[in-house]
């Protein structure tokens, strides 16, 4: 549950006790106070709605269960009720996000947070056929396609990236392969770095073969364009270098009466985000506290000694050498 979410409403406890749960004519109401079981202050109360809320990030690994005692006090007649709550924290895969030092990103100091920044700075992007450039961009992340589908960039704790795009029509750098996709249904481009190590793949499919795409493309976290005919799934791994990076994805496709090598080449640097921001477009706020470092990929926090939890806000005494 996210911070601010309602855990439980306690009006039914008042009704079950035979007392009114609403404000009376004299303005008296029921106030709430957590008396035991919440030493790390993970929960809060809402007096107006008589509810328990999540006040700080929960972490199953730190504390999987809370046994709370909540005191309900009528501000008029001072009647007091005590409610015992057992809160079980579910272990959700991928949460909290993992801080992976292999792809740790720089933090840009003394830079305006509200300015325009990207985690990655591009040194050029171009498409080619048999080595001959057919189109190029100075910075791919500034183009319509990635800007329109910015929420479809997923940077993961294992230093990998996923990006999904669905389109009704193809742009200039893609229109040449439209007949190929319509004829074959699917094309897979293998991706390599400058040392020719495998770095992932790009799968392109026409609507007739969209079931051949990875299933994650159609999960709720990726937005697909209504009426789309063409689908693209980008899967890249081991994107952890901070030096200038070169990536090329290509495949042999039937064009101009014979097979040709179609390639995309992307050159970039991982430059990082301003302090307190993360994500490909540095548009997400970190919630790391007590001097913790925020990972530019997924917002994971690297806690300083003496702190634990999703936001490094839970004291954890330890020996510091």
Automatic annotation (TrEMBL):
What UniProt keywords are attached to this protein's entry? Calcium
Q: Which organism is it from?
A: Branchiostoma floridae
A GO molecular function annotation here is:
calcium ion binding
Highest taxon in the source lineage: Eukaryota
Tell me which residues make up the Cadherin domain: 19-99
Q: Which PROSITE patterns match?
A: CADHERIN_2 (PS50268), EGF_1 (PS00022), EGF_2 (PS01186)
Q: What is this protein called?
A: Cadherin domain-containing protein
**One GO cellular component from the entry?**
membrane
Which Gene Ontology BP terms does the record give? homophilic cell adhesion via plasma membrane adhesion molecules
